[in-house]
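Lab manual, section 2.4: Encoding a predicted structure.

Procedure: take the sequence of the chain (72 residues), apply the prediction step described in section 2.3, and record the output as structure tokens. A sample record is shown.
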Amino acid sequence: MDQVLFLQAGISNMYMKKHKLSPKEFLKLDKKIDILGFLQEGYEPFHLMGDKGILLEVEEYIKLKKGFVQRL
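Recorded output:
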């Protein structure tokens, strides 16, 4: 489980820096679309990828989920 937390923390931090989000803003987004859950569920394939590849997967996931949430 520690490796999952390490992955979640690292990728979340990269996402916040890239998109200039505060931790509070990130957690608000996570509450809506479960980014941390996505990272936990995808840990097995993600831990074989580089951080940049994982970040791209997360960004695509967020884009898809935001579109779905906005339609509701």
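Check your result against the sample. The chain has five helices and no strands.
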